[in-house]
């Protein structure tokens, strides 16, 4: 059943998520303007969609993920862009769906890593993207692809499938 008010969250997440995927693949960076745009869309739409308790819980989720992100970034486990983007997408996820979202992240991680490696060894695709920073063999995997893809899939399933 379509949840009309919450479907409004899908549209900014979709377009900003596509932009994040592209910038993370090409430059290995998740721009602050993308994070701020996604956060701003939640702050405005979330306030209109959710009651104050749910809105507060979702904002608190983002704060917790931001704090954890600082920790894992300082340990060198993930990039700063991935941490800040994870904190920004956290309010879009209902707390009751946290485990389902983690499962989606696991599946999308496998798919995005496999596609990234497949593109890297496909000459026709690689020649169009040869200067992209994500092809550096010593670099990290652009996890923003996984995070953005997971958010898009989650919101699609919640709004159009459940």
List the helices and strands and how they pair.
Blueprint: H1 4-27, H2 32-49, H3 52-74, H4 80-89, H5 98-120, H6 123-128, H7 144-161
Helix pairs in contact: 1-2, 1-7, 2-4, 3-4, 4-7, 5-7
Domains counted in the coordinates: how many? 1
- Percent of sequence in beta strands: under 5%
Biggest sheet features: none
Helix content: over 70%
Brief synopsis:
This protein has seven helices and no strands. By secondary structure, it is mainly α. The longest helix has 24 residues, at 4-27.
Task: Describe it.
It is built from 7 helices and no strands. The protein has one domain (4-161). It is 75% helix and 0% strand. The termini are close together.
Primary descriptors:
mainly alpha, 7 helices, single chain, about 160 residues
